[in-house]
Design a protein that fits this description.
By secondary structure, the chain is an alpha/beta fold. It has helices at residues 16-24, 44-61, 75-87, 100-109, 229-234, 244-259, 262-283, 311-320, 345-362, and strands at 5-6, 67-72, 92-97, 114-120, 144-147, 149-150, 155-156, 172-175, 192-196, 207-212, 287-288, 300-305, 323-324, 335-338.
Length: 363
Amino acid sequence: MSRPFNFSAGPAALPEAVLTQASAEMLDFQGSGLSVMEMSHRSKEFGAIHQAAQADLREILAVPDNYRILFMQGGGIAENAIVPLNLSKGQTVDFVVTGSWSQKSYKEAARYCTTHLAQSNADSGHTHLPAPSSWRLSEHAAYVHLCSNETIHGVEFQSLPDLKALGSDAPLVIDFSSHVASRPVDWSRVGLAFAGAQKNLGPAGLTIVVVREDLLDRALPICPSAFNYKLVADNDSMFNTPPTYSIYIAGLVFQWIKREGGVSAMESRSVAKANLLYGFLDDSAFYTCRVEPSCRSRMNVPFFLADEALNNDFLAGAKAAGLLQLKGHKSVGGMRASIYNAMPLAGVQALVDYMADFERHRA
């Protein structure tokens, strides 16, 4: 029996090949006699897993040599505190608020530093992205924070802003949790990027931080040792026990991305999947997507039925058709299809076919 298509926003679908390999290695990893879940993080077996995962992630994301890759815990929510604890230096931090996740970041950082709202799209219900030329950046900001893909509202930066062109010398910090490895990153414009792995890279439990080396030794005195980027980097992400099994699974995902053609292949697939789904939505009077076309996310597609009284019937029918977790976030309602790297084009086609059939019978 074929597996259903999982459109969850996170924890999200994993490539079937990864799940198959993990299943085969569950009781005995490559003749070690142990599951990876049981290994010491200091063992040579896990050391090889850890180093391979770091090297593969650096390769697929084309991370320059002057950036460190840290494997941490706590997800994006924790990084909302960990980043200002490491980078704010008692200075003002600029925030561009474009949806729920950047709003959470803005609110949390205010506990540890002075925050400045450089721009917001709240007046549109977070359905567009304000032009960088409209941002009101501080003169001496410690850094500028943005969420480059908003999972809930479905807006995505198609390119990252050039802060120097906007007259700012501050490093750019991006939360790229929900579209990491789906498109290239212009590292020349980024000081630090972080991601919870559970959306597009692996299971919950692992947080990835990519940080430029000159930003490492700036932590506030109150920063907990386990969250101090320099200490984590100096100890090769082994300052405390890392999330070993999550790193192992993420490493399998990195290998899968490489076999499939790397980030360039992931981007091509993402464009095809997004075009298929948005094209259907735009041609329908029964469904609507409220996000401006210029900033629609390739990963998270929110949409609404014209008659929301049919929402429960739509979801029940989708589940029966093997299309799971399409309910929109409780804060916005409607529906949401998350079409991360692990979602094949066939899954999006099955969704479109179901939506068309539902429209024919219920419009």
